[in-house]
Design a protein that fits this description.
Elements: E1 2-8, H1 12-25, E2 31-34, H2 39-45, H3 51-59, E3 62-67, H4 84-93, E4 97-103, H5 116-119, E5 123-129, E6 141-144, E7 154-157, H6 164-179, E8 184-189, H7 195-208, E9 215-220, H8 221-230, E10 237-240, H9 242-255, E11 263-267, E12 273-277, H10 294-306, H11 311-326, E13 329-330, E14 340-341, H12 344-354
Parallel strand pairs: 1-2, 1-3, 3-12, 5-10, 8-9, 8-10, 13-14
Antiparallel strand pairs: 4-5, 4-11, 6-7, 11-12
Helix pairs in contact: 1-10, 1-12, 6-7, 8-9, 10-11, 11-12
The chain binds nicotinamide-adenine-dinucleotide (NAD).
Nicotinamide-adenine-dinucleotide binds near residues 67, 280, 282, 291 and 331.
């Protein structure tokens, strides 16, 4: 089983190192190779996604990714910025289906900014389309406005677009995910204003006919943003486009108290996947040895389950994470009085011990 390790920038190297410790402790035949990505790759190879890194990722069964980005790269041209590496990998590997679970562990209920009764037992899965929408749509750019409110002034524009097959395949992914859970699916769009959203809704309704066992409902994205903080437990599986999914999945992440706990998976139609924590490179705490490695460790568990066909090993990791939380070990981001504060490496060691 070939795994490409792309630690990236900031806390990326620290948290991926802990996930590797855990993977090694499983004693599986894993071939792990590391490559540069993001700002680190730009510094060494003048590009955030060098050809050798892309090749390693393409030849692997799965990619375990840390995080990329640092404010010091903000002045680079957009195509050279660290974040472009993620977009490039998604595009090159065809990773159109993004799974973002938001689970509130009972030990961490107090870390949420919402009332405990609203989040205790929360378990939402957001299925986000990842290779279309306004992030990839063309044309885009800057120009002098020919019309609009201020003709003759500088303007910028992006293009929101979705094709029927793009919506169909993510809808199938979401219905199948819902079938494995409580068989409830909410499709989120903005069909009262956007043509792309109207097509989205029409196609999702058509695909639903093939999944009569799944209860489908629709919600406008503005309402979904409100309902996520008002009554998050009413959701089970949410399916939505790239832009809305980006925002709603971060909102859902914060319901659980710490973004440092949340894994994610991005898959293509061959189950090849990129697995990464939901958070960024956290430059503010990089190099201090205090980042929470659990989101990355849990991403490794998703990798074993979805891309490497090792569900038992995935279960073992998730149980081990649950155990260290029960033991009261906490990194700073999830620390509360009465628990034991530990650093990144200690947390990784504790998960290995619990395995
Ligand atoms: P961020 O997720 O890096 O950090 C937000 C806050 O959460 C910070 O206070 C940080 O210290 C904290 N945090 C994040 N992960 C943590 C962890 N594992 N343990 C403890 N605390 C943690 O978001 P940001 O500050 O907006 O962005 C920083 C950089 O990361 C930017 O360059 C951004 O573009 C990039 N970014 C990358 C990804 C990615 O690689 N997929 C995703 C989001 C942001």
């Amino acid at each position: 089983m070939k795994i490409a390790l792309l630690p990236g920038d900031g806390i990326g190297t620290e948290i991926v190192a802990e996930a590797v410790k855990v993977l090694k402790a499983l004693n599986l035949p894993l071939d792990m190779q590391t490559a540069d990505v993001g700002g680190t790759a730009y510094d060494k190879h003048d590009h955030p996604l060098p050809p050798a890194t892309l090749q390693l990722a393409q030849e692997a069964d799965a990619v375990l990714f840390g995080a990329v980005g640092d404010w010091k790269y903000d002045k680079l041209e957009r195509h050279l910025r660290p974040e472009q590496a993620i977009l490039g990998l998604r595009k090159a590997l065809g990773l159109y289906a993004n799974f973002r679970p938001a689970i509130c562990y009972k030990e961490l209920v107090g870390a949420s900014s919402l009332k405990p009764e609203l989040v205790a037992g929360l378990d939402i899965l957001i299925v986000r389309e990842l290779t279309g929408d306004i992030y990839f749509g063309t044309p885009r750019g800057r120009r002098t406005a020919a019309d609009g409110h201020f003709p003759g002034s500088e303007e910028a524009f992006d293009t929101m677009r979705y094709s029927r097959p793009e919506i169909e395949r993510i809808a199938h992914t979401a219905f199948q995910a819902a079938q494995k859970r409580s068989k409830r699916l909410t499709s989120v769009d903005k069909n009262n204003v956007l043509e792309t959203s109207q097509l989205w809704k029409d196609v999702v309704v058509e695909v639903a006919q093939q999944y009569p066992d799944v209860q489908l409902d629709h919600m406008l994205v503005d309402n979904a943003a409100m309902q996520l903080v008002k009554a998050p437990k009413n959701f089970d599986v949410i399916v939505t486009g790239n832009l809305f999914g980006d925002i709603l999945s971060d909102e859902a992440a914060m319901l659980t108290g710490s973004i440092g706990m949340l894994p994610s998976a991005s898959l293509n139609d061959k189950n090849q996947g990129l697995y990464e924590p939901s958070h960024g490179s956290a430059p503010d705490i990089a190099g201090k040895g205090i980042a929470n490695p659990l989101a990355t460790i849990l991403s490794a568990a998703m990798m074993l389950r979805f891309s490497l066909g090792q569900p038992e090993a995935a279960d073992r990791i998730e149980t081990a994470v649950q155990k260290v939380l029960e033991q009261g070990l906490r990194t700073g981001d999830i620390y509360s009085e009465g628990t034991q504060k530990v650093g990144t490496a200690q947390m990784g060691d504790a998960v290995v011990a619990a395995l």
